[in-house]
Prior knowledge:
Elements: H1 3-38, H2 43-68
Helix pairs in contact: 1-2
Amino acid sequence: MPKDNVIRQLGKYYGVVFLLPASILAGWIIGYFLDRFFGTQILKIVFLFLGVAAGIIEVIRELSAADAGK
């Protein structure tokens, strides 16, 4: 396997590493600010779970697209 091919594969999957944590963080931040705006306590948890679900779905999409390209 050529070294150039290994670097390409590493670059392709490097973004997937940050996809799930970024989605979780985005969901929590949105929920945090909505909780502060509306004066509630539950929206952080709701949007945290939505961030987790969105992150998992996006990771599956990315890996499926990468697998289809093989």
